[in-house]
Amino acid sequence: PNKNKSSTDLEELQSQIDEARNSYKPESIRYLLIAEAPPNSIDRFFYYPDVKTADYLFLGVMGVLFPERKQKYISLGRPESMKKDLLRDFQEKGFFLLDLLDFPINLYSGSLENAVPPLLDKLKKCADDNTPIILIKATVYVLAFHTLVSNGFKNTVSLRIPFPGQGWQTEFGTKFSEALEIAGYE
Known about the structure:
Strand order of the largest sheet: 2-1-3
Distance between the termini: 53 Å
Largest sheet: 3 strands, parallel
Helix content: 40-55%
Low-confidence stretches: none
Number of strands: 3
Order of helices and strands: HEHHHEHEHH
């Protein structure tokens, strides 16, 4: 009985993550970001509007795309309405974030390499050969870059971008800006 409960819980979690992610999916994806996984503290997921602590990936990405608005968002105490507005603008500019894993890494017992083939399936449904793909976090780059390129995703940006946490925020900002330029973002 416990195994069923935990797999039901995982399906429920997966459904909540997908619903939040898809509510900000652009009509046409112009720039695809791929990170490693939703955070272990799932309440801090990128697409959840009410996140008061950490939220490193969201803050890192918004700090590059909308620097003044990100600062205002933080200075006002991270109001939910402002995060929703930022996510909508992210969506309107054609950005979409997927993860190598669909759920937090602490709930995954396999090898991350096993997550690459399902990622390819997801990409075939939402991106084409010309969609610029930006890989975030060194492990994601190492695992996925060559596989994506050899499977026809020729606009995968060849740049290792660190995750914007644990002191890597500045380096993330520099590399992510570089990746956006390579991807043709104005």
